[in-house]
Design a protein that fits this description.
about 300 residues, 3 domains, 4-stranded antiparallel β-sheet, 16 strands
Length: about 300
């Protein structure tokens, strides 16, 4: 018999839920069954984030530094406005109604500007004013924090200057706190990730220009399973792990007699998937002869 010739098997949320219910010895019967399963599926994704997975959700971000600005959102916060050509990089903007403030971190275009995490909440339709340019404009929408809040962590980064990438080291909260003069300017050589609900990255020294770029790889959340017809943002090799994990989560609520066996299966599938989900590169070992004495 001929093979199918297709390689597009991709279950949607409903099919994962049905399989998980069957592994629990149950049938999917009601709308609430589907709702509680989708909730469990989204909690499973959070568990994967804590376990350090999701390599397929690594995104590379390029953030142009702004002179004298040391703190940046991990991702992009864009404020839509009617006109922003007259504003300048690094100046503070203030909302006339909300009194919210933020700093501009890239050169504004005609209808939008990227900003630091705002203090307060800008409202749609209010007038904002630049601190140094005195320019004014009207917001056309509120600034969304969704892209930044989807960040799990930064994996690594470099600073690009004149087309040359230079390594930048990550430091801990304590090490960043112990920096005596945080206002020192120069080419950033260190960064600290403050993993707040809206994560920010703090660099040191404070950037000395508005042309250097911080290029980093960030880990982001898997897309939510909002409806039963959604497909799931996981690669083919993780299908068994996802199914086993969802079955285990459902068993905690609906099939307590199967918890142990489903948990064991999930951990086995997870371990197998995690071991495969890694960088694969050649390792070259070069021996050193410094400890060998010369012979006559």
């Amino acid at each position: 018999m001929a093979v199918s010739g297709s390689k597009d098997f991709e279950p949607n949320v409903a099919e994962y839920v049905e399989e998980a219910f069957e592994r629990c010895g149950l049938e999917l019967r009601t709308g609430y069954d589907a709702q509680t399963a989708r909730r469990s599926l989204n909690l499973l994704f959070a568990d994967w984030a804590n376990r350090g997975l999701n390599r397929w959700t690594i995104e590379q971000v390029t953030q142009t530094f702004a002179k004298d600005i040391a703190e940046y959102p991990v991702g992009a916060i864009t404020l839509s406005v009617s006109d922003s050509d007259s504003f300048t990089i690094a100046e503070t903007i203030t909302g006339g109604t909300s009194a919210a403030t933020a700093s501009l971190i890239t050169k504004p275009d005609s209808t939008s500007m990227t900003i630091t995490v705002p203090s307060g909440t800008f409202t749609s339709g209010e007038t904002i004013t630049g601190s140094s340019s005195s320019a004014t404009t009207t917001t056309t929408s509120t600034a969304s924090l969704e892209d930044v809040q989807a960040t799990i962590d930064i994996l690594s980064g470099v600073v690009r200057r004149s087309s040359t990438d230079i390594s930048i080291g990550r430091i801990s909260r304590d090490n960043y706190l112990s920096i005596a003069t945080k206002s020192t300017t120069g080419r950033p050589t260190q960064f600290y990730v403050d993993r707040l609900i809206t994560p920010v990255v703090k660099v040191w020294p404070t950037p000395e220009n508005s042309t250097d770029q911080f290029i980093y790889d960030r880990l982001v959340r898997i897309d939510d399973a909002d409806t039963s017809v959604n497909t799931v943002q996981v690669p083919f090799r993780f299908y068994p792990c996802l199914t086993a994990g969802l079955a285990y989560y459902i068993s905690l609520k609906r099939a307590p007699d199967r918890i142990q066996i489903l948990k064991a299966l999930y951990e086995e599938e997870f371990l197998r998937a995690a071991e495969e989900d890694r960088d694969k590169a050649n390792i070259i070992l070069v021996p050193t002869y410094s400890s060998l004495s010369a012979t006559s």
